[in-house]
Amino acid sequence: MSKRALKKYLSELKKSELEEQLLGLYEKFPAVKAYYSFVFNPKEEKLVQEAKLKIGNEYFPVKRKRPRARRSVAQKYIKNFLLLGVDAPLVADVMLYNLEIAQEFSVHKNVPDAFYKSMLNSFEQAIQYIALNAILPEFKDRILVIYKHTQDNNWMFSDGFSRALDAID
Predict the structure, then answer these.
(1) Which of 33, 70, 121, 157 has the greatest number of C-beta atoms within 10 Å?
(2) How does DSSP assign 17-82, residue by residue?
(3) Collapsing DSSP states into helix, strand and coil, what is residue 106?
(4) How many Å apart are CA 35 and CA 51, to the nearest integer?
(5) What's the pLDDT tens digit per position in 45-98?
(6) What DSSP string runs through 148-167?
(7) Which residues contact 162 (CB under 8 A, 6 or more apart)?
(8) What distance in Å separates the CA atoms of residue 42 and residue 52, rounded to the nearest whole number?
(9) Angle of CA points 43, 44, 46, to nearest 5°
(10) Where are the domains of the chain?
(11) Which InterPro entries match (predicted)?
(12) DSSP 8-state class, residue 133
């Protein structure tokens, strides 16, 4: 259904029918419920802390013995934050936190090559997002610390990290 057809359909509905449909969507789809919960009660700081806790638990688990170190957990939160329209500095904070905790993890554990490629992707995504939202001055120090760690610890794909950093200069 096109947007135009949807507009026409919605304009033909009575207010009570429209309310029923919205309530049905709210009950049936968790994404709709999450959206309206966020719109009417945007506790962004709480969401960010929750995300950081889950991301940290991926690398340094509290309840299990072995870390999973899945980048996808952080990506899921970041994608959700972007869909909800969370404030750009808060999204950037989570992006950089993911990199920082992963770097801490890499110091203590032997990680596979794919880990470094994945972190390069996260770094590039964070750099692009921060530059696009014009919040570089706020995060430049953290970005440089992350970059320096990749160089000092001879991370694989270190030239990719350099290129990503050069793209914002």
Answers:
(1) 157
(2) HHHHHHHHHHHH-HHHHHHHHHHHS--HHHHHHHHHHHHHHHHS-SSSSS----HHHHHHHHHHHH
(3) helix
(4) 17
(5) 898 999 999 999 999 998 888 888 888 999 999 999 998 889 999 999 999 999
(6) HHHHHTT-TTHHHHHHHHHT
(7) 147, 151
(8) 17
(9) 70
(10) 1-41, 44-166
(11) DUF6155
(12) T
Residue 145 three-state SS? helix
Residue of 167, 161, 45, 46 whose CA lies nearest to 102: 161
User: What gap in Å lies between CA 130 and CA 49, rounded to an integer?
Assistant: 20
Question: For residues 106 and 103, what is the distance between their CA atoms, to the nearest angstrom?
Answer: 5
- What pLDDT, in 10s, does the model give residues 129-162? 999 999 999 999 999 999 999 999 989 999 999 9
| Residue 116 predicted with pLDDT over 90 | yes
CA 45 to chain centre: 14
The first and second tokens of residue 94, run together, are 């989570």
User: Encoding tokens for residue 26?
Assistant: 């709210």
By CB neighbour count within 10 A (0-12 exposed, 13-18 middle, 19+ buried), where does 128 fall? middle
Following DSSP, what letter does each residue of 12-26 receive, concatenated? Answer: HS-HHHHHHHHHHHH
Structure tokens, 103: 């770097």
Q: What is the pTM of this model?
A: 0.82
Token pair recorded at residue 22: 């919205």
d(CA 22, CA 67): 41
Tell me the residue type at 1: M
